User: Which sequence fits this backbone?
């Protein structure tokens, strides 16, 4: 019975892939892998409710000497969406000792960190814990030389930017151990440093008026991709939305008549309804009417290749970055959000009002977005116009 049920499920899944526009090469690769998976399940006589589990997947990967089996995970997601299984195959997360889990929870709440960042920190802390266990070192007795030894092994094949990020993550954990549970007798965070890097100074985090003018004058509406990018840039600058928030906008979230946008999936779980400037509402309308592909998905921004799925935050970042680079500026998509915050400050908004508009839970997060307005300071102090 399990063989027949799984065979039918695989057949339905492959037909669905074809109907959604997956390439013939991808479909054929999935078909071969799923055929081997069917034989494996049949030979092991695994019951239906145990087929799509992490243990079964591990056993299949080990027998076939595979590191990655997207076809099986894809099949499990398809069957879950069809309500034919209770849940798809979950990625395993190994719990860490209590002090590590407490820090991850503290970091997530205090920094309003995205799930992907928490996963990266968890991966680093898991390796750090394993290192301490193997070396028979306890946290209260750890020395900077031992931390350096761990980082040297952990970061051996990582890019310089990733290494800086790892050091930053570990500094945060060490600082927490010293200040909160007071496990460390000394703050070791300042001692976690890398070799000096000599490079040009970073540009400011927000754009000046002339830079904004350069950016928007360089945007074109000649292709569907350009029209989509045009709308995303407007949402990032005129509304200060994060790439994650832009990617999660649904059609029903946009009220063209009331010029309002419901931002439901905000970082920090802080949904709100924001007013939409006329230029932005027109940019969204131009995309919906002239560029958005027809799709069963009700998200606003979709990919332009079949099966036209919702785009992720990485795609938003890519195309906004591409537009900024095309304009000749050296900045990042987040500079538009920083500029939005700075503009609110310049118009007289309080930091608490800016906090609400940015969707922050912690006022400290808002403070990091704001810089001193040199033009306003000189005008007030010296009655001087720039």
Assistant:
């Amino acid at each position: 019975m399990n063989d027949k049920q799984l065979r039918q499920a695989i057949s339905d899944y492959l037909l669905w892939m074809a109907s959604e526009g997956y390439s013939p090469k991808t479909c054929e690769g999935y078909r071969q892998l799923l055929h081997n998976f069917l034989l494996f399940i049949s030979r092991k006589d695994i019951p239906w409710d145990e087929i799509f589990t992490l243990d079964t997947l591990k056993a299949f990967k080990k027998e076939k000497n595979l590191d990655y089996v997207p076809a099986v995970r894809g099949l499990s997601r398809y069957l879950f969406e069809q309500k034919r299984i209770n849940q798809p195959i979950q990625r395993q997360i190994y719990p860490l000792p209590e002090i590590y889990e407490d820090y991850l929870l503290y970091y997530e709440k205090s920094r309003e960190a995205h799930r992907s960042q928490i996963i990266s920190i968890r991966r680093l802390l898991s390796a750090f814990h394993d290192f301490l266990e193997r070396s028979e070192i306890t946290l209260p007795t750890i020395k900077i030389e031992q931390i350096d030894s761990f980082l040297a092994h952990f970061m051996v094949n990582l890019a310089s930017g990733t290494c800086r990020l790892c050091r930053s993550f570990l500094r945060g954990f060490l600082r927490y151990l010293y200040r909160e549970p007071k496990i460390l007798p000394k703050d070791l965070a300042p001692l976690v440093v890398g070799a000096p890097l000599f490079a040009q100074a970073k540009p400011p985090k927000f754009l000046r008026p002339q830079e904004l003018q350069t950016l928007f004058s360089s945007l074109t509406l000649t292709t569907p991709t350009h029209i989509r990018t045009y709308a995303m840039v407007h949402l990032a600058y005129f509304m200060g939305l994060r790439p994650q928030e832009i990617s999660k906008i649904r059609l029903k979230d946009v009220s063209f008549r009331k010029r309002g946008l419901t931002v439901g999936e905000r970082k920090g779980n802080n949904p709100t309804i924001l007013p939409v400037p006329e230029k932005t509402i027109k940019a969204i309308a131009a995309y919906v009417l002239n560029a958005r592909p027809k799709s069963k998905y009700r998200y606003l921004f979709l990919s332009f290749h079949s099966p036209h799925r919702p785009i992720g935050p990485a795609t938003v970042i890519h195309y906004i970055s591409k537009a900024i680079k095309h304009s000749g500026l050296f900045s990042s998509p987040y500079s538009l959000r920083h500029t939005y915050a700075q503009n609110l400050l310049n118009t007289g908004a309080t930091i608490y009002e800016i906090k609400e508009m940015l969707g922050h839970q912690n006022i400290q997060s808002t403070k990091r977005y704001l810089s001193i307005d040199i033009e306003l300071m000189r005008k007030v102090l010296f009655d001087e116009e720039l």
In short: The chain has a mean pLDDT of 85.
